User: Which sequence fits this backbone?
């Protein structure tokens, strides 16, 4: 039995069929027998052979389902696992969807923040343009007001004698037209 224990290593998952069934010197126990009767002679050998065969099939299925990266279940955390990266890789593999979600949220956060900064820069530029347009409008309005004063119009008419226009000497009067 000590030799069988030596065959099973801690790091590698090895299945010893004889160790699992209890060896040739022990009688296997049938977990499916509920009737309480023991099989007789050849039936015992047949049952033991069937159990070994079922165990071999189960072990084959387990080994085919096991992946190379799968770690052996252990209750303790070893220093070698932490330094070798096995612990971190197992943690990342278990939380992969959470990590992907966090990366997507961070990416969206950065994109929205960048877009907000660009919008703030555009708003500042448009406010500067609006202020310039307001000053230009105020300047044009004051020039128009200055040019439309009566004294300025009279000076322009005197300077241009060819128009034949002159200021009125008599005040205007109202003509009443009867309504029909």
Assistant:
């Amino acid at each position: 039995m000590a030799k069988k224990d030596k065959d099973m290593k801690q790091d590698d998952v090895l299945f010893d069929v004889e160790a699992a069934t209890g060896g040739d010197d022990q009688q296997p126990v049938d977990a499916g027998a509920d009737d309480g009767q023991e099989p007789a002679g050849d039936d015992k050998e047949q049952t033991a052979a069937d159990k070994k065969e079922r165990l071999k099939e189960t072990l084959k299925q387990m080994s085919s389902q096991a992946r190379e990266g799968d770690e052996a279940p252990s209750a303790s955390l070893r220093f070698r696992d932490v330094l070798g990266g096995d612990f971190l890789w197992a943690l990342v593999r278990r939380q992969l969807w959470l990590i992907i979600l966090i990366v997507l949220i961070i990416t969206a956060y950065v994109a929205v923040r960048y877009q907000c900064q660009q919008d703030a820069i555009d708003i500042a530029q448009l406010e500067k343009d609006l202020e310039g347009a307001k000053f230009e409008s105020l300047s044009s309005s004051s020039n128009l007001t200055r040019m439309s004063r009566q004294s300025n119009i009279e000076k322009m008419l005197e300077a241009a004698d060819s128009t034949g226009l002159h200021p009125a000497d008599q005040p205007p009067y109202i003509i009443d037209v009867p309504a029909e």
